């Protein structure tokens, strides 16, 4: 026998997902009906409740566009924006249920975001739009087929040509680029920046030598010797003076004269030869 102070066991009936969805749909419809009849600020308060109540739908749609190089928080914000637009644009007297109107609105907002804002390299608009359609259709196709759909399977589902699917799929990497600070090797010992080729100084040297050779060939032996001692051997003007038996002042004047002649030789371009 149970004592009078004992609490009787409570049985909680399981609530199915479909029942939960149905209750949300009914509550949403009631809120939209009331919002249609009242002015602001109550009108806007009711629409805000509709958005909060259906926010999981927006998040679910946004999750289908992940792994495309866009921050998940940004995707959710765009999806919420689409939901807000749907709540404001829906008319309760329409025969279409709210979600039947809201889901395409949210998807359209996400596709526009990818088309207009998320590209690092911007392909043609038709390719951008096809990329958005593929991203939206893939999760359902994977679930139905049990594997990643081929271009032919995706094309059949979207009613387009496989070549267009292949072209759009080839630009999947255009939504983001790797940071130069990202690891450049598997072990992460160097960054991606370390693997980028630098300008090769040797090419500049070859070009300089090729340009100077004809001009230097026109100099006398002593001038060539002064250039060799100064720029090849790295001697100071005083050391060159000792080497040639002249003063440092004379070396300075000689170097200045040599460099001026070379400069003049390099800027002069011979005119066309006459036949």
TrEMBL record:
- What Pfam family does this protein match (any one)? Sigma70_r2
- What keywords sit in the KW lines? DNA-binding, Sigma factor, Sporulation, Transcription, Transcription regulation
What SUPFAM superfamilies does the record tag this protein with? Sigma2 domain of RNA polymerase sigma factors, Sigma3 and sigma4 domains of RNA polymerase sigma factors
Cross-referenced CDD domains, in alphabetical order?
Sigma70_r4
Q: Does the keyword DNA-binding apply?
A: yes
**Domain of life of the organism encoding this protein:** Bacteria
Domain HTH cro/C1-type: start-end pairs: 226-257
Kindly provide the name given to this protein in its UniProt entry: Sigma-70 family RNA polymerase sigma factor
- Please give the family membership noted in the entry: Belongs to the sigma-70 factor family.
Which BP terms from GO are recorded? Answer: DNA-templated transcription initiation; sporulation resulting in formation of a cellular spore
PROSITE patterns referenced in this protein's UniProt entry, alphabetically: HTH_CROC1
Entry's Gene Ontology molecular function annotations: DNA binding; sigma factor activity
**Keyword Cell membrane (UniProt):** no
């Amino acid at each position: 026998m149970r004592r009078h102070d004992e609490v009787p066991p409570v049985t909680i009936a399981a609530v199915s997902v479909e029942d939960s969805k149905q209750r949300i749909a009914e509550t949403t419809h009631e809120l939209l009906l009331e919002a249609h009849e009242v002015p602001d600020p109550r009108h806007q308060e009711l629409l805000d409740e509709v958005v909060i109540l259906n926010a999981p739908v927006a998040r679910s749609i946004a999750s289908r566009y992940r792994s495309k190089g866009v921050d998940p928080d940004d995707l959710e914000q765009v999806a919420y924006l689409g939901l807000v637009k749907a709540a404001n644009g829906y008319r309760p007297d329409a025969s279409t249920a709210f979600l039947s109107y809201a889901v395409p609105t949210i998807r359209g907002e996400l596709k526009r975001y990818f088309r207009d804002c998320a590209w690092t390299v911007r392909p043609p608009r038709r390719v951008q739009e096809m990329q958005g359609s593929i991203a939206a259709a893939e999760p359902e196709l994977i679930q139905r087929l049990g594997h990643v759909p081929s271009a032919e399977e995706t094309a059949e589902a979207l009613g387009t040509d496989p070549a267009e699917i292949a072209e759009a799929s080839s630009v999947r990497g255009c939504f983001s680029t790797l940071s130069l600070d990202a690891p450049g090797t598997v072990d992460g010992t160097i960054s991606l920046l370390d693997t980028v080729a630098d300008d090769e100084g040797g090419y500049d040297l070859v070009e300089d030598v090729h340009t100077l050779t004809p001009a230097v060939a026109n100099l006398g032996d002593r001038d060539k010797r002064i250039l060799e001692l100064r720029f090849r051997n790295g001697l100071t003007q005083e050391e060159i003076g000792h080497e040639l038996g002249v003063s440092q002042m004379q070396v300075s004047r000689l170097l200045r004269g040599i460099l001026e002649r070379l400069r003049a030789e390099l800027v002069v371009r011979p005119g066309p030869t006459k036949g």
